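Please check both lines for our workbook:

___
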Amino acid sequence: MSYAQFQVSVSTGYAIGSAGMKLGEETNVNGTKNSYGSYGEGANVQIRGTYFFNKSFGADLAFGYLNGSDQTVSKITVPNTDIEAIARARAFGASASMVYRFNNNIYGRFGALIKAGGKTEAVVYNKTTFTQEQADANSLPFGSYTETNYIEDYHGQFPLGFVAALGYKYDLNETFSLFVEGEYYGISLKRKDSEISEFNTNIILPHGTVAVSGLYTIDNLPAGYSKKTTYVDDLPSSNTDTSKKLAQKVPYSSFGINFGITYKFKFSDKNNL
């Protein structure tokens, strides 16, 4: 018996972080604790093309988009300072897998995964209240503060990971079927560079009126900030260049549930003589 079939599937789902690593810290007057997670957590959409060579084995090529959920990078709540920095993935990926059908309903697939594009977007809020001396030096009433908001986009080097899934499909007719599957992504990304895309600092009076708008902007960054940063493996102890930092790997691993629909383009069944 010879069996050949090409099909296209469209799905959506949600993934939770797997093997979460330390992403940041949360600090208040009582102490500091680590924040763990994975940038692979979030909602996704996928489109896959699958070709079955026979009743059991096939090859699968998939493309997807991840709309990652917010991950805490830094949260500081102490007198005179409030900082909240979150980061989230906005990533495109692709995978190539082998598919095995255990029976007409249950299947599994295993293959290679890459991140084909996108970024990790960090959104930062920083409120710093002037001390009495700072307020007097700038002719401001006590209780005035600076409020900084900025966005920094992080890009990574080309990564390679793996994907595995186990699914169940239900045939509606000879053309359409519904499926649900559990899917695991195992992948990490090494940072290559980052760029500040938005930056603004205002001075605000105690009652909320903006005293100075745009004290710092993306074209006038304060000391210690660089519009573009490159991540490297080695830095000399004498380094003072804020545009270079040590590289680190960040996790994108996840486990998710996907729901979708499959359309079968071709089906043939014939006897071999």
